[in-house]
Amino acid sequence: MWICYASLGASLVAILLVAIKKGVRQAISWRMHHLLWFIVLARLMIPVLPESSFSLFTWISWASNGLASNGISVAQPLSASTAPEVIQTEPRGVPANTGLAVQGENGGGMQVEAAEDNKMGTASTHAAYIQILAVVWLIGVVILLARLFIYLYDMHTKERFLMRVTDERVTTIMNACRERFGVKREMPVYTGTLAKGPLISGIFSPWVYCPRDVYQSLSDAELYHVFAHELAHHKRKDLLWSFLGSLALAIHWMNPLVWVWIRKMKADMELACDEYVLEILGEKESIPYGMTLLSFARQISEKRPMPYPLYFHHSHHSNQMKRRIQMISTFKKGSAKLSAVAIACGLVISAVTLTNAAEPSTLQMPVKQEDKMRPLFGETPVKGTTRLEKAEKLAGFTFKVPSYLPPEVTYQNSIIYRSEESEPLDNSVLHFFQSPDTRLKIETSTVERTRESLQVRSEDGSTISTLSAEEDLSANGKTVKVIIRKTTSGEGSIDQEVLYFWSDEGLYYSIEVDGHLENEEIVKIIGSFQSPNEELRKRYVNYNFMNSDILDLEDLEYFSEIIGFAPVFPLDLPSGYKATDAYVSKKLNFSYPENEEDKHKRTIHITFENPEKPKTIVLFAQIKDKSIVENMRKTKKVPFERIDGVKFEVPVTPLNISGQEVFRTAPYKIDDTMSTPKEKFNHTYFWLKEDVCYKVTFKEVEEEVQQQVVAALVKEKAIEMHF
Fold first, then answer.
1. CA dihedral 264, 267, 269, 273 (to 10 degrees)
2. Tens digit of pLDDT for each residue in 579-604?
3. What are the Cα distances from residue 72, in Å, to 64, 68, 69, 78?
4. Residue 32: which region, alpha, beta or left (left: phi > 0; alpha: psi -120 to 50)?
5. For the segment 242-301, what is each residue's pLDDT rounded down to a tens digit?
């Protein structure tokens, strides 16, 4: 699959480069034309490339997203790094009589056979047609590589049976040519029956071959031109690039476009070599050099050329010869040099094409101050927070809170109700306070509560509560109405609550007391009501609340500091899963807390749902705790906690997904043996990046989608918000 993605990426780059080359054909040297092919070669051969927001693939992704937003669906090209790869590194342990199937993102599948008697299951494999294609591809690679290395070995072997040319005329011309081209090492010339024409061989120990009848029939000037051409290949390292091109073609042989590009690369290499020769020899030698080329071409065309591997060395084709003669006839001194502008353009093109698409989190973007409060998951009439400061911003109106609270009474959380349809607008803020034996609910509303609204009703609509008015109280000049509410439960027990009501500056306040609190304390509480200040905002924050909602970017920024790391926070996952809510909680059932300190570690959770598959859920969680995965490596198990607090363990299997070590649990139910038979099995994946542990749990999600989602999350980057 990596080969497919690499070929696709190289194909897009090559199409761009061909267009650029045609557009600036006369403006750049053939040396630059040839250098541009190295970008395609690098895309084909380098397994991992850096990511950049300036990458061609990032632009394609943006364009695709833009078209998709206009109702046009565009398949985004994938770089090699985005291809999900799942490799099982150890046999999987699964319960007996259980069959699991996992399919790859592009249809490739893994089949995990059921294990019997708790024995280890068989290793997973891809679908049959993927296996067949892989085998065909591998056979082709072996054949082409074998042919290439046999050729290289054959050349090395034949070198020992060639005769070294000692003719003083030949060695004198070669030495003069070496001096002109700045080649310090000795360049031996051999002759024999190796080939019909001259060539240079040996990447590390180069030597030149020239048939006896060729160097005897050529004049000194013509022989000088022949040696100059071969030494130009040596100076330009063309043998090395040819070898790498042959390797790329052998690996990507199933892509027909690669065959075309390698031949074009060879053709441009010959033109660049001729250009380099003329740059050294000068314009005066262009016509004689061209005549030598034509004379030599006639000789070669009358003979059967040596069969080079992979069709990589054929430069005598008539069309190619015409291009070379045309270039030689129009050559001007200095045209082969790389100008500063050409180098700069080449660097820019390399930066655009030799990088993969940046994969930022959906929140990796500059965020304006006014956008911090924009809901991440859409507008809802009910919102919760564990911070007074946040409640002020969500409420939309100014309210007061008590500065005095009885001993042991602490702030818990706030809930904000906003109605955009009622007239007048019925908006309210509820603050919850608690002590060991008392609960307080303080409500501020824009609409006065009626006696009817205080009634508690059963599901069938019958009233099961009674209200009785008590004597009014006076608190700081305000008249406070007192109402006792008694509610009878289905079991016959009676709960009693005391309700206190008053108004202040056009708003309506109430306190609901569940427990025991003297009227004197209530009067002190009401008398202390004031507009929030910095001291109250710092005081009314609950760091220990079980779950704290993440509603917007401001919450995300705030809780990132609380949890101690920048979280991964995607809003979309493959297969149509959208984030519906997020919150921060204690560690709890991330995995079983090992100690009391563990229980207070903060975990960030994101829930994903698919509107087309309402029963399926993806739960993504993160925590700064590397011990979880370290323990899995040792024990091959992960501990969980049932609803009754009992610990149970689930086996895990290490996988390799997109280059990341991931631990996948065997199927399990959330409460183990306490779960009902109708409950579906869950699958959970864990992985560790730096010191952050990531966990994703799938509820009734297909195995194919699990692999896609995990591969996407593994590659997702942590948020980088800039406020």
1. -160
2. 999 999 876 556 555 555 556 678 99
3. 8, 5, 7, 18
4. alpha
5. 888 888 889 999 888 888 888 888 888 888 898 888 888 888 888 888 888 777 766 655
Q: In the structure encoding, which two tokens stand for residue 219, read together? A: 């004049």
Q: Evaluate whether 255 touches 11 at the Cβ level (below 8 Å).
A: yes
Q: Which helix (H) or strand (E) holds 324?
A: helix 318-329
Contact present, 155 and 242 (Cβ < 8 Å): no
Say if CB 218 and CB 268 are below 8 A apart. no
How many helices, marked H, and strands, marked E, lie in the chain? 19, 29
* Ramachandran category for residue 383: left, alpha or beta (phi over 0 → left; psi -120 to 50 → alpha): beta
Q: Where are the alpha helices (DSSP H) in 574-656?
A: 596-599, 627-635
Is 85 within 8 Å of 106 (Cβ atoms)? no
What Cα–Cα distance (Å) separates residue 294 from each residue in 287, 307, 423, 626? 11, 21, 94, 71
pLDDT tens, residue by residue, 141-200:
999 999 888 888 887 777 778 899 989 999 999 999 999 999 988 999 999 887 778 888
Strand partners, 494: 488
pLDDT tier for residue 126 given thresholds of 50, 70 and 90: low
Is the dihedral angle over the CA atoms 73, 79, 80, 81 positive or is it negative? negative
Q: How far apart are CA 174 and CA 187, in angstroms?
A: 8
Query: Is-cis flag, bond preceding 654, omega within 30?
Result: no
Collapsing DSSP states into helix, strand and coil, what is residue 387?
Answer: strand
| Measured distance CA(187)–CA(197) in Å, rounded | 17
